[in-house]
Design goal:
With 121 residues, this protein is mainly α. 85% of the residues lie in helices and 0% in strands. Helix 1 (10-78) runs antiparallel to helix 2 (83-116).
Length: 121
């Protein structure tokens, strides 16, 4: 006696095919979103790196200005005729440096704020 071969019912086969199709579509959707996310992350990293370079370059420029101002003061102090002139030069330098440092801090703050703003490039 032979048993008839077992056949998978068509309804079960259709159900399995729909399940595979749904899984494929879900995975394709996941891959699409993942690719977009990677692109957005790359763009954000690139913008952050560009902004960090900009802030660093500006900070270096300000450092150069401040060191040159200090060296100019040192040169003037060496040539001062008396302590009163040296104190006057020092006072003038401190006043001008405070103004410069305030302006520089504002500018650096603006650059950092710009780089922290989403979508800033």
């Amino acid at each position: 006696m032979t048993n008839p071969p077992f056949e998978i019912p068509n309804e079960l086969r259709d159900f399995a095919e729909r399940s595979v199709d749904q899984a494929r579509k879900a995975f394709e959707g996941f891959v699409t979103v993942a690719q977009k996310t990677i692109g957005a992350a790359d763009d954000a990293a690139e913008a952050a790196q560009k902004n960090a370079k900009s802030v660093g370059a500006q900070a270096l420029s300000f450092t150069e200005q401040n060191v040159n101002a200090a060296l100019d003061l040192a040169h003037k102090l060496v040539q001062a005729k008396d302590p009163q002139e040296a104190f006057a030069l020092q006072s003038e330098f401190l006043k001008s440096q405070l103004v410069s440092l305030q302006a520089q801090a504002k500018e650096i703050g603006a650059l950092i704020q710009k780089s922290a703003t989403p979508g800033a490039k």
